[in-house]
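Reviewers of the previous submission asked for a worked example of the structure-prediction workflow described in the proposal, so we include one complete record here. The input consisted solely of the amino acid sequence. No template or homolog information was supplied to the procedure at any stage.
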Amino acid sequence: MADAAPTPQELPRPKRPRFFWPGGLSARLLTLTVLFVAGGGALAFPPALASFERQWLLERVRGAETVSRFADIAKSSVGGPQREQLLRGAGVEWVAVQTKDEGLHLVLQGKRSSQTPYFVDLRNGAPAAWLAAPVQTLFGGSGRSVRVRAEPRFISAQFIEVVAPDAELRRELLAYLWRMVVIVALVASTAGVLVYLSLNFFLVRPMQRITNAMERFRADPEDAGAGVQLSGRRDEIGRAEAELDRMQADLRAALSSRARLAALGEAVAKINHDLKNMLTSAQIASERLAALKDPKVSQALPRLERALDRAVKLASGVLAYGKTQEAAPEPRAVPLAAAIESAAEEARLAERGIALSIGVAATDQVNADPDQLHRILANLLRNAREAIEHQEGRRAKGRITVSLTRAGEVSLVRVTDNGPGVPERVRERLFQPFAGFGRPDSTGLGLAIARELAQAHGGDLTLAATGPKGSTFELRLPGAPPPAAPVRRKSAKSTT
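From that input alone, the workflow returned the following C-alpha coordinates.
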Protein backbone atom coordinates (compact mmCIF):
# COMPACT_ATOMS: atom_id res chain seq x y z
CA MET A 1 0.00 0.00 0.00
CA ALA A 2 1.38 3.39 -0.98
CA ASP A 3 2.25 5.84 1.77
CA ALA A 4 -0.26 8.56 2.43
CA ALA A 5 0.56 12.02 1.20
CA PRO A 6 1.89 14.28 3.93
CA THR A 7 -0.52 16.82 5.34
CA PRO A 8 0.26 20.54 5.06
CA GLN A 9 1.22 20.53 8.73
CA GLU A 10 3.82 17.78 8.11
CA LEU A 11 5.48 19.49 5.13
CA PRO A 12 8.76 21.23 5.97
CA ARG A 13 8.34 24.92 6.20
CA PRO A 14 10.75 27.08 4.21
CA LYS A 15 13.11 29.08 6.34
CA ARG A 16 12.42 32.75 6.29
CA PRO A 17 15.40 35.00 5.64
CA ARG A 18 16.47 36.74 8.80
CA PHE A 19 18.36 39.97 8.98
CA PHE A 20 21.22 40.45 11.36
CA TRP A 21 20.04 41.48 14.80
CA PRO A 22 22.24 41.63 17.91
CA GLY A 23 21.31 39.04 20.49
CA GLY A 24 21.95 40.96 23.69
CA LEU A 25 19.59 43.58 25.08
CA SER A 26 22.46 46.04 25.53
CA ALA A 27 23.60 45.74 21.89
CA ARG A 28 20.05 46.08 20.64
CA LEU A 29 19.46 49.12 22.80
CA LEU A 30 22.62 50.83 21.55
CA THR A 31 21.82 50.02 17.91
CA LEU A 32 18.24 51.27 18.15
CA THR A 33 19.28 54.44 19.97
CA VAL A 34 21.87 55.34 17.31
CA LEU A 35 19.43 54.53 14.50
CA PHE A 36 16.62 56.59 15.98
CA VAL A 37 18.82 59.60 16.69
CA ALA A 38 20.38 59.38 13.21
CA GLY A 39 16.92 59.01 11.66
CA GLY A 40 15.70 62.06 13.55
CA GLY A 41 18.72 64.04 12.33
CA ALA A 42 18.16 62.84 8.76
CA LEU A 43 14.67 64.33 8.82
CA ALA A 44 16.31 67.76 9.14
CA PHE A 45 18.30 67.32 5.89
CA PRO A 46 15.63 68.42 3.32
CA PRO A 47 14.61 71.69 5.03
CA ALA A 48 18.24 72.53 5.84
CA LEU A 49 19.35 71.97 2.21
CA ALA A 50 16.35 73.93 0.90
CA SER A 51 17.19 76.87 3.18
CA PHE A 52 20.83 76.75 2.13
CA GLU A 53 19.92 76.76 -1.58
CA ARG A 54 17.39 79.58 -1.14
CA GLN A 55 19.94 81.72 0.66
CA TRP A 56 22.54 81.02 -2.04
CA LEU A 57 20.14 82.00 -4.82
CA LEU A 58 18.99 85.13 -2.96
CA GLU A 59 22.63 86.25 -2.69
CA ARG A 60 22.92 85.94 -6.48
CA VAL A 61 19.68 87.87 -6.96
CA ARG A 62 20.82 90.72 -4.67
CA GLY A 63 24.12 90.89 -6.53
CA ALA A 64 22.24 91.04 -9.82
CA GLU A 65 20.12 93.92 -8.49
CA THR A 66 23.24 95.90 -7.71
CA VAL A 67 24.63 95.19 -11.16
CA SER A 68 21.35 96.21 -12.82
CA ARG A 69 21.32 99.55 -10.99
CA PHE A 70 24.86 100.25 -12.12
CA ALA A 71 23.94 99.32 -15.69
CA ASP A 72 20.91 101.65 -15.62
CA ILE A 73 23.10 104.51 -14.46
CA ALA A 74 25.92 103.89 -16.92
CA LYS A 75 23.64 102.75 -19.77
CA SER A 76 25.57 102.89 -23.04
CA SER A 77 28.96 103.32 -21.39
CA VAL A 78 28.92 99.64 -20.31
CA GLY A 79 30.82 97.73 -22.96
CA GLY A 80 31.35 94.04 -23.56
CA PRO A 81 34.36 93.48 -21.26
CA GLN A 82 32.79 95.53 -18.47
CA ARG A 83 29.48 93.69 -18.82
CA GLU A 84 31.22 90.33 -18.55
CA GLN A 85 33.12 91.54 -15.50
CA LEU A 86 29.88 92.72 -13.82
CA LEU A 87 28.08 89.48 -14.53
CA ARG A 88 31.04 87.41 -13.34
CA GLY A 89 31.23 89.45 -10.13
CA ALA A 90 27.53 88.87 -9.48
CA GLY A 91 27.85 85.15 -10.35
CA VAL A 92 25.10 85.21 -12.99
CA GLU A 93 24.87 84.86 -16.80
CA TRP A 94 22.15 87.41 -17.49
CA VAL A 95 19.74 89.70 -15.64
CA ALA A 96 16.18 90.66 -16.59
CA VAL A 97 13.70 92.99 -14.89
CA GLN A 98 9.89 93.07 -15.14
CA THR A 99 8.34 96.55 -14.86
CA LYS A 100 4.84 97.86 -15.48
CA ASP A 101 5.90 100.25 -18.22
CA GLU A 102 8.52 98.36 -20.15
CA GLY A 103 7.55 94.77 -19.34
CA LEU A 104 10.32 92.15 -19.13
CA HIS A 105 13.58 93.45 -20.57
CA LEU A 106 17.20 92.34 -20.36
CA VAL A 107 19.44 94.50 -18.29
CA LEU A 108 22.67 92.54 -18.79
CA GLN A 109 23.26 89.54 -21.00
CA GLY A 110 26.28 87.28 -21.19
CA LYS A 111 26.92 83.96 -22.87
CA ARG A 112 23.90 81.75 -23.38
CA SER A 113 24.02 78.11 -22.29
CA SER A 114 23.21 75.36 -24.75
CA GLN A 115 20.83 73.72 -22.20
CA THR A 116 17.54 75.15 -21.12
CA PRO A 117 17.85 76.28 -17.49
CA TYR A 118 15.46 74.87 -14.92
CA PHE A 119 13.20 77.31 -13.17
CA VAL A 120 13.06 78.21 -9.45
CA ASP A 121 10.53 80.81 -8.23
CA LEU A 122 11.59 82.14 -4.84
CA ARG A 123 8.25 83.88 -4.49
CA ASN A 124 6.45 80.54 -4.31
CA GLY A 125 6.03 79.57 -0.64
CA ALA A 126 4.70 76.05 -1.33
CA PRO A 127 6.59 73.55 0.89
CA ALA A 128 6.71 70.90 -1.85
CA ALA A 129 8.41 73.20 -4.37
CA TRP A 130 10.75 74.57 -1.68
CA LEU A 131 11.86 71.08 -0.57
CA ALA A 132 12.15 69.73 -4.13
CA ALA A 133 14.55 72.43 -5.33
CA PRO A 134 17.73 70.92 -3.73
CA VAL A 135 16.85 67.48 -5.12
CA GLN A 136 16.64 68.92 -8.62
CA THR A 137 20.00 70.67 -8.15
CA LEU A 138 21.83 67.62 -6.79
CA PHE A 139 20.45 64.94 -9.08
CA GLY A 140 19.51 66.85 -12.25
CA GLY A 141 22.93 66.51 -13.87
CA SER A 142 25.99 68.70 -14.27
CA GLY A 143 26.65 71.66 -16.63
CA ARG A 144 23.20 73.16 -16.25
CA SER A 145 21.92 76.62 -15.34
CA VAL A 146 19.12 77.73 -13.03
CA ARG A 147 16.67 80.54 -13.81
CA VAL A 148 15.62 82.28 -10.61
CA ARG A 149 12.70 84.67 -10.18
CA ALA A 150 12.43 86.76 -7.01
CA GLU A 151 11.01 89.99 -5.66
CA PRO A 152 13.46 92.93 -5.92
CA ARG A 153 14.62 94.80 -2.86
CA PHE A 154 16.83 97.60 -4.21
CA ILE A 155 15.07 98.48 -7.50
CA SER A 156 11.53 99.40 -8.45
CA ALA A 157 10.15 96.46 -10.44
CA GLN A 158 7.58 93.67 -10.27
CA PHE A 159 10.22 90.95 -10.18
CA ILE A 160 13.76 90.24 -11.24
CA GLU A 161 15.04 87.17 -13.04
CA VAL A 162 18.62 85.93 -13.21
CA VAL A 163 20.23 82.93 -14.83
CA ALA A 164 23.20 81.44 -13.01
CA PRO A 165 25.28 78.27 -13.53
CA ASP A 166 24.41 75.66 -10.89
CA ALA A 167 27.88 74.07 -10.79
CA GLU A 168 29.01 76.22 -7.87
CA LEU A 169 25.60 75.81 -6.16
CA ARG A 170 25.77 72.05 -6.57
CA ARG A 171 29.32 71.94 -5.23
CA GLU A 172 28.52 74.04 -2.17
CA LEU A 173 25.29 72.14 -1.59
CA LEU A 174 27.18 68.82 -1.56
CA ALA A 175 29.78 70.25 0.83
CA TYR A 176 27.01 71.48 3.12
CA LEU A 177 25.33 68.07 2.94
CA TRP A 178 28.50 66.24 3.97
CA ARG A 179 29.03 68.67 6.85
CA MET A 180 25.52 67.92 8.04
CA VAL A 181 26.11 64.16 7.73
CA VAL A 182 29.23 64.42 9.88
CA ILE A 183 27.48 66.58 12.46
CA VAL A 184 24.43 64.29 12.63
CA ALA A 185 26.69 61.23 12.90
CA LEU A 186 28.59 62.79 15.80
CA VAL A 187 25.41 63.90 17.53
CA ALA A 188 23.76 60.51 16.99
CA SER A 189 26.79 58.64 18.31
CA THR A 190 27.14 60.90 21.34
CA ALA A 191 23.43 60.87 22.13
CA GLY A 192 23.27 57.13 21.51
CA VAL A 193 26.11 56.42 23.90
CA LEU A 194 24.66 58.73 26.58
CA VAL A 195 21.18 57.27 26.26
CA TYR A 196 22.63 53.76 26.18
CA LEU A 197 24.67 54.32 29.33
CA SER A 198 21.67 55.81 31.13
CA LEU A 199 19.27 53.05 30.11
CA ASN A 200 21.89 50.41 30.73
CA PHE A 201 22.36 51.69 34.28
CA PHE A 202 18.66 52.13 35.09
CA LEU A 203 17.15 49.27 33.05
CA VAL A 204 19.50 46.74 31.47
CA ARG A 205 21.74 46.01 34.46
CA PRO A 206 18.80 45.51 36.87
CA MET A 207 17.15 43.21 34.32
CA GLN A 208 20.39 41.27 34.00
CA ARG A 209 20.47 40.82 37.79
CA ILE A 210 16.87 39.60 37.76
CA THR A 211 17.61 37.23 34.86
CA ASN A 212 20.72 35.85 36.56
CA ALA A 213 18.77 35.29 39.77
CA MET A 214 16.05 33.42 37.87
CA GLU A 215 18.61 31.24 36.09
CA ARG A 216 20.44 30.41 39.33
CA PHE A 217 17.17 29.66 41.08
CA ARG A 218 16.06 27.37 38.27
CA ALA A 219 19.39 25.53 38.41
CA ASP A 220 19.32 25.10 42.20
CA PRO A 221 16.24 26.33 44.10
CA GLU A 222 17.88 25.50 47.42
CA ASP A 223 20.84 27.81 46.75
CA ALA A 224 20.61 30.63 49.28
CA GLY A 225 22.57 32.94 47.00
CA ALA A 226 20.12 32.51 44.12
CA GLY A 227 17.82 35.20 45.46
CA VAL A 228 17.60 38.58 43.79
CA GLN A 229 19.14 41.53 45.61
CA LEU A 230 16.44 44.10 46.32
CA SER A 231 17.47 47.60 45.23
CA GLY A 232 14.64 49.36 47.06
CA ARG A 233 13.47 51.11 43.90
CA ARG A 234 9.81 52.16 43.69
CA ASP A 235 9.42 51.80 39.92
CA GLU A 236 8.56 48.75 37.82
CA ILE A 237 12.06 47.29 38.29
CA GLY A 238 11.72 47.48 42.05
CA ARG A 239 8.30 45.86 41.89
CA ALA A 240 9.65 43.09 39.66
CA GLU A 241 12.50 42.45 42.14
CA ALA A 242 10.09 42.33 45.08
CA GLU A 243 7.66 40.01 43.29
CA LEU A 244 10.50 37.72 42.20
CA ASP A 245 11.79 37.57 45.77
CA ARG A 246 8.30 36.68 47.06
CA MET A 247 7.84 34.09 44.33
CA GLN A 248 11.17 32.45 45.17
CA ALA A 249 10.27 32.38 48.87
CA ASP A 250 6.87 30.83 48.10
CA LEU A 251 8.44 28.25 45.78
CA ARG A 252 11.07 27.34 48.38
CA ALA A 253 8.32 26.91 50.96
CA ALA A 254 6.29 24.79 48.55
CA LEU A 255 9.29 22.64 47.68
CA SER A 256 10.15 22.25 51.35
CA SER A 257 6.55 21.30 52.07
CA ARG A 258 6.53 18.73 49.28
CA ALA A 259 9.83 17.31 50.53
CA ARG A 260 8.50 17.03 54.06
CA LEU A 261 5.30 15.47 52.77
CA ALA A 262 7.34 12.93 50.79
CA ALA A 263 9.44 12.14 53.85
CA LEU A 264 6.31 11.90 55.97
CA GLY A 265 4.66 9.56 53.46
CA GLU A 266 7.71 7.36 53.35
CA ALA A 267 7.91 7.20 57.14
CA VAL A 268 4.20 6.51 57.54
CA ALA A 269 4.34 3.82 54.90
CA LYS A 270 6.97 2.00 56.97
CA ILE A 271 5.12 2.18 60.26
CA ASN A 272 1.58 1.87 58.92
CA HIS A 273 1.61 -1.94 58.93
CA ASP A 274 2.97 -2.20 62.47
CA LEU A 275 0.53 0.44 63.68
CA LYS A 276 -2.42 -1.53 62.32
CA ASN A 277 -1.22 -4.64 64.16
CA MET A 278 -0.90 -2.69 67.40
CA LEU A 279 -4.38 -1.23 67.03
CA THR A 280 -5.77 -4.69 66.23
CA SER A 281 -4.22 -6.00 69.45
CA ALA A 282 -5.75 -3.09 71.34
CA GLN A 283 -9.17 -3.88 69.86
CA ILE A 284 -8.83 -7.51 70.95
CA ALA A 285 -7.91 -6.35 74.44
CA SER A 286 -10.95 -4.05 74.53
CA GLU A 287 -13.19 -6.95 73.54
CA ARG A 288 -11.80 -9.00 76.44
CA LEU A 289 -12.41 -6.07 78.77
CA ALA A 290 -15.99 -5.94 77.55
CA ALA A 291 -16.51 -9.46 78.89
CA LEU A 292 -15.74 -8.24 82.42
CA LYS A 293 -18.62 -7.18 84.62
CA ASP A 294 -16.79 -4.29 86.27
CA PRO A 295 -19.05 -1.16 86.20
CA LYS A 296 -16.11 1.25 85.85
CA VAL A 297 -14.76 -0.73 82.90
CA SER A 298 -18.19 -0.78 81.29
CA GLN A 299 -18.45 2.99 81.71
CA ALA A 300 -15.06 3.78 80.12
CA LEU A 301 -15.15 1.06 77.46
CA PRO A 302 -17.35 2.90 74.88
CA ARG A 303 -14.94 5.83 74.81
CA LEU A 304 -12.01 3.46 74.38
CA GLU A 305 -13.77 1.66 71.52
CA ARG A 306 -14.59 4.94 69.75
CA ALA A 307 -10.99 6.10 70.10
CA LEU A 308 -9.69 2.79 68.74
CA ASP A 309 -12.10 2.94 65.79
CA ARG A 310 -10.94 6.43 64.89
CA ALA A 311 -7.30 5.38 65.23
CA VAL A 312 -7.82 2.41 62.90
CA LYS A 313 -9.53 4.61 60.30
CA LEU A 314 -6.79 7.24 60.59
CA ALA A 315 -4.03 4.63 60.24
CA SER A 316 -5.77 3.16 57.19
CA GLY A 317 -6.20 6.52 55.46
CA VAL A 318 -3.17 8.50 56.66
CA LEU A 319 -1.38 8.02 53.34
CA ALA A 320 -4.30 9.58 51.50
CA TYR A 321 -3.12 13.10 52.37
CA GLY A 322 0.14 12.70 50.52
CA LYS A 323 -1.14 10.54 47.65
CA THR A 324 -4.84 11.06 47.03
CA GLN A 325 -7.71 13.07 48.39
CA GLU A 326 -9.53 12.35 51.60
CA ALA A 327 -12.42 9.91 51.48
CA ALA A 328 -15.65 11.55 50.33
CA PRO A 329 -17.68 12.72 53.34
CA GLU A 330 -21.05 11.18 54.15
CA PRO A 331 -22.94 14.14 55.65
CA ARG A 332 -25.89 13.71 57.93
CA ALA A 333 -27.46 15.61 60.79
CA VAL A 334 -25.02 15.52 63.71
CA PRO A 335 -25.68 16.98 67.21
CA LEU A 336 -23.05 19.69 67.49
CA ALA A 337 -22.82 19.93 71.29
CA ALA A 338 -21.99 16.22 71.64
CA ALA A 339 -19.40 16.49 68.84
CA ILE A 340 -17.77 19.46 70.61
CA GLU A 341 -17.58 17.59 73.92
CA SER A 342 -16.03 14.55 72.24
CA ALA A 343 -13.46 16.71 70.41
CA ALA A 344 -12.66 18.64 73.61
CA GLU A 345 -11.98 15.35 75.38
CA GLU A 346 -9.53 14.32 72.65
CA ALA A 347 -7.93 17.79 72.72
CA ARG A 348 -7.42 17.31 76.50
CA LEU A 349 -8.78 20.70 77.46
CA ALA A 350 -9.91 19.69 80.94
CA GLU A 351 -6.58 18.04 81.75
CA ARG A 352 -4.69 21.23 80.86
CA GLY A 353 -6.98 23.56 82.78
CA ILE A 354 -8.54 25.20 79.70
CA ALA A 355 -12.16 26.30 80.24
CA LEU A 356 -14.56 25.38 77.43
CA SER A 357 -17.71 27.40 76.90
CA ILE A 358 -20.22 25.75 74.54
CA GLY A 359 -22.73 28.29 73.24
CA VAL A 360 -24.70 25.59 71.45
CA ALA A 361 -27.99 24.06 72.48
CA ALA A 362 -28.10 20.33 73.06
CA THR A 363 -30.55 19.94 70.17
CA ASP A 364 -28.63 22.03 67.61
CA GLN A 365 -27.41 20.03 64.63
CA VAL A 366 -25.11 20.56 61.63
CA ASN A 367 -24.92 18.67 58.37
CA ALA A 368 -21.52 16.90 58.31
CA ASP A 369 -19.71 13.60 58.32
CA PRO A 370 -19.43 12.65 62.02
CA ASP A 371 -15.83 11.37 61.91
CA GLN A 372 -14.55 14.25 59.75
CA LEU A 373 -16.40 16.83 61.86
CA HIS A 374 -14.73 15.31 64.93
CA ARG A 375 -11.30 15.69 63.29
CA ILE A 376 -12.00 19.32 62.33
CA LEU A 377 -13.17 20.32 65.81
CA ALA A 378 -10.39 18.36 67.54
CA ASN A 379 -7.75 20.12 65.41
CA LEU A 380 -9.24 23.57 66.10
CA LEU A 381 -9.53 22.98 69.84
CA ARG A 382 -6.05 21.45 70.06
CA ASN A 383 -4.51 24.39 68.18
CA ALA A 384 -6.31 26.85 70.44
CA ARG A 385 -5.07 25.01 73.55
CA GLU A 386 -1.47 24.94 72.29
CA ALA A 387 -1.59 28.64 71.42
CA ILE A 388 -2.76 29.49 74.94
CA GLU A 389 -0.21 27.20 76.62
CA HIS A 390 2.74 28.60 74.65
CA GLN A 391 1.94 32.28 75.31
CA GLU A 392 4.83 33.80 77.23
CA GLY A 393 4.05 35.70 80.43
CA ARG A 394 0.43 34.59 80.49
CA ARG A 395 -1.48 35.01 83.75
CA ALA A 396 -5.16 34.84 82.79
CA LYS A 397 -6.87 31.47 82.62
CA GLY A 398 -7.28 30.01 79.15
CA ARG A 399 -10.78 29.98 77.70
CA ILE A 400 -12.21 28.60 74.47
CA THR A 401 -15.73 29.41 73.27
CA VAL A 402 -17.63 27.51 70.55
CA SER A 403 -20.80 29.03 69.10
CA LEU A 404 -23.22 28.30 66.27
CA THR A 405 -25.09 30.77 64.07
CA ARG A 406 -27.19 30.38 60.93
CA ALA A 407 -26.80 32.41 57.74
CA GLY A 408 -29.61 31.22 55.53
CA GLU A 409 -28.86 27.62 54.59
CA VAL A 410 -25.33 27.78 55.98
CA SER A 411 -24.15 26.79 59.46
CA LEU A 412 -21.36 28.91 60.95
CA VAL A 413 -19.38 27.29 63.76
CA ARG A 414 -17.00 29.75 65.45
CA VAL A 415 -14.16 28.68 67.73
CA THR A 416 -12.77 31.62 69.74
CA ASP A 417 -9.84 31.57 72.17
CA ASN A 418 -8.19 34.19 74.36
CA GLY A 419 -4.67 33.32 73.22
CA PRO A 420 -1.95 35.57 71.77
CA GLY A 421 -3.38 35.64 68.22
CA VAL A 422 -1.88 34.46 64.96
CA PRO A 423 1.49 36.05 64.10
CA GLU A 424 1.33 38.27 61.03
CA ARG A 425 4.23 36.50 59.36
CA VAL A 426 2.26 33.22 59.06
CA ARG A 427 -1.25 34.51 58.33
CA GLU A 428 -0.91 34.32 54.55
CA ARG A 429 0.22 30.68 54.64
CA LEU A 430 -1.66 29.63 57.76
CA PHE A 431 -3.58 26.83 56.04
CA GLN A 432 -0.62 25.51 54.06
CA PRO A 433 0.98 22.23 55.20
CA PHE A 434 3.85 22.67 57.70
CA ALA A 435 3.15 26.40 58.05
CA GLY A 436 2.78 26.25 61.82
CA PHE A 437 3.59 28.87 64.41
CA GLY A 438 7.16 27.69 64.80
CA ARG A 439 6.35 25.62 67.93
CA PRO A 440 8.56 22.56 68.35
CA ASP A 441 5.56 20.29 69.06
CA SER A 442 3.53 21.45 66.03
CA THR A 443 3.63 19.65 62.68
CA GLY A 444 1.70 22.36 60.84
CA LEU A 445 -0.75 19.84 59.34
CA GLY A 446 -3.77 20.34 61.62
CA LEU A 447 -5.29 23.42 60.00
CA ALA A 448 -4.40 22.21 56.50
CA ILE A 449 -6.24 18.92 57.09
CA ALA A 450 -9.18 20.65 58.79
CA ARG A 451 -9.64 23.07 55.90
CA GLU A 452 -9.39 20.26 53.35
CA LEU A 453 -12.12 18.35 55.18
CA ALA A 454 -14.32 21.46 55.39
CA GLN A 455 -13.95 22.15 51.68
CA ALA A 456 -14.80 18.52 50.92
CA HIS A 457 -18.17 19.20 52.59
CA GLY A 458 -18.72 22.17 50.26
CA GLY A 459 -17.84 24.68 52.97
CA ASP A 460 -14.64 26.29 54.20
CA LEU A 461 -12.50 27.05 57.22
CA THR A 462 -11.18 30.61 57.60
CA LEU A 463 -9.49 32.85 60.14
CA ALA A 464 -12.31 35.29 60.92
CA ALA A 465 -10.42 37.54 63.38
CA THR A 466 -7.15 37.63 65.26
CA GLY A 467 -5.29 40.00 67.54
CA PRO A 468 -3.52 40.29 70.89
CA LYS A 469 -6.73 39.25 72.69
CA GLY A 470 -7.27 36.04 70.77
CA SER A 471 -8.36 34.48 67.50
CA THR A 472 -11.62 33.28 65.95
CA PHE A 473 -11.79 30.51 63.36
CA GLU A 474 -15.01 30.14 61.38
CA LEU A 475 -16.18 26.79 60.01
CA ARG A 476 -18.78 27.11 57.24
CA LEU A 477 -20.91 24.04 56.58
CA PRO A 478 -23.69 23.92 53.99
CA GLY A 479 -27.14 23.09 55.26
CA ALA A 480 -29.05 24.02 58.41
CA PRO A 481 -30.81 20.91 59.73
CA PRO A 482 -33.64 21.43 62.23
CA PRO A 483 -33.02 20.84 65.92
CA ALA A 484 -33.11 17.25 67.09
CA ALA A 485 -35.97 16.02 69.21
CA PRO A 486 -35.08 16.12 72.91
CA VAL A 487 -34.37 12.74 74.45
CA ARG A 488 -36.89 11.80 77.07
CA ARG A 489 -35.89 9.44 79.82
CA LYS A 490 -38.37 6.87 80.99
CA SER A 491 -39.14 6.85 84.69
CA ALA A 492 -38.23 3.64 86.50
CA LYS A 493 -41.11 1.52 87.82
CA SER A 494 -40.78 -0.78 90.81
CA THR A 495 -41.68 -4.36 90.31
CA THR A 496 -42.65 -6.89 92.87
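The CA atoms of residues 433 and 445 lie 5 Å apart. We consider this example representative of the routine output the project will generate in years two and three.
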